[in-house]
Design goal:
Keywords: NADP, Oxidoreductase. InterPro entries: NAD(P)-bd_dom_sf, Sc_DH/Rdtase_CS, SDR_fam. With 278 residues, the chain is α/β, with parallel strands linked by helices. It is built from 8 helices and 7 strands.
Length: 278
């Protein structure tokens, strides 16, 4: 019997993709783990049935090359495609570098479309699954990270539309509404360097990531849940991680002033720059 196969983007050590690769490998799948720099996931090479592929998800030609490698190994089918690669960009909107914001969307949004187009035929042949790593951030207008949150809102909506489009072709789509999970994304966030004339310059030190937030759930716990959901026939939006209950069921009913006041120092920032949130 042919092993099921899964390709995961963004598998650098310490992140969700890396842990998910291990979780699927333990379940007997053939795993194609990808990252821009294979050296950042080199430890996965020692695991049976794990193939490492260098892949920049913003490079259409690299995606074509990766698809050919997978096709050669699987006979033209891919059971699971996980669009996990992501980036962070934090900056007040008034001071946002538009080119950096576009680069963020290239990773967090457009890359998922490139991957679905590049591997879509293989997933359709397998009657497989597309897993898109969304986020509860896409439901929140959090100061200083609106660009990132908007990119996640975009992938959340894209994924749900894709689910309806692929259902007639026998393909399931999971939209992962991830809450706070231990990973590298906060550690990889940019240092905020503001222009001298920025309204927020007086509080620049207080704006530096990682930002205070609710407790994470362990990566291993999250990926075990996600692997099980993916293999169990689940479809649509699935929620897990720190703060998911609040964002899903409570936040929609609260005024913005209450939501942001739960973020440490948010009110003090507003006071010090002469602004009021709400």
């Amino acid at each position: 019997m042919t092993k099921k196969s899964v390709l995961i983007t963004g598998c650098s050590t310490g992140g969700i993709g890396h842990a998910l690769a291990v979780a699927f490998q333990k379940r007997g799948l053939t795993v194609f783990a990808t990252a821009r720099s294979p050296s950042k996931m080199a430890d996965l090479a020692s695991l049976p049935n794990v193939h490492l592929i260098a892949l920049d998800v913003t490079d259409a030609q690299a995606i074509i090359a990766a698809a050919k490698k997978v096709e050669a190994e699987t006979g033209g089918k891919l059971d699971i495609l996980v669009n996990n690669a992501g980036a962070m960009y934090s900056m007040p909107i008034l001071d946002t570098d538009v080119e950096k914001a576009k680069a963020l969307f290239d990773v967090n949004y457009w890359a998922a479309i490139r991957m679905v187009k590049g591997f879509g035929d293989m997933v359709v042949k397998a009657k497989g699954v597309v897993v898109n790593m969304g986020s509860i951030a896409g439901s929140l207008g959090i100061p200083m990270q609106s660009t990132y949150n908007t990119s996640k809102a975009a992938i959340n909506i894209l994924s749900e539309g894709l689910r309806l489009e692929l259902a007639p072709l026998g393909v399931r789509v999971l939209t992962v509404m991830a809450g706070n999970v231990t990973s590298n994304i906060s550690e990889n966030a940019n240092t905020i360097t503001l222009p001298e004339d920025s309204y927020y310059k007086p509080i620049e030190k207080e704006l530096q990531p990682p930002f205070p937030k609710a407790p994470d759930i362990p990566t291993e716990q999250f990926v075990e849940w996600l692997a099980n959901k993916t293999l169990a026939g689940t479809t649509g939006m699935i929620w897990n991680g720190g703060n998911t209950f609040l964002v899903r069921w409570v936040v929609p009913w609260l005024p913005t002033s209450v939501v942001v006041s739960d973020i440490p120092s948010c009110e003090s920032i507003g006071t010090r720059v002469g602004l009021t949130y709400g």
